[in-house]
Amino acid sequence: xxxxxxxxxxxxxxxxxxxxxxxxxxxxxxxxxxxxxxxxxxxxxxxxxxxxxxxxxxxxxxxxxxxxxxxxxxxxxxxxxxxxxxxxxxxxxxxxxxxxxxxxxxxxxxxxxxxxxxxxxxxxxxxxxxxxxxxxxxxxxx
Length: 142
Hints:
This protein is mainly α. The protein contains six helices and two strands; from the N terminus they run H-H-E-E-H-H-H-H.
């Protein structure tokens, strides 16, 4: 990810040097912070390689990868790695949630990280964790 972020930063700087429109922001946010779309924190983590016209505004800008493009990249990476299991972005999401719970993160933190509205949605991950929360150490244990 560090290498990927360095590449992103270079792409971001090139876009800024070429005065490419920033990323699309919802209208209310765009009105409140008119230049936020041109700031580094708002730049896509998975941007498209090519620029395209924004169908909403007719502005040429860089968009995020389409879901199917990202899914294809994950599938290709899994194949190159010689994995014999089905790997999808959703599988990575499940793995992330499971590892968080195994490391002792509380369910509410995992809920927030995953963007779930209801904790019940997040609790589906607890069925694969044998003893959730037991990895948490008290400061008094040290």
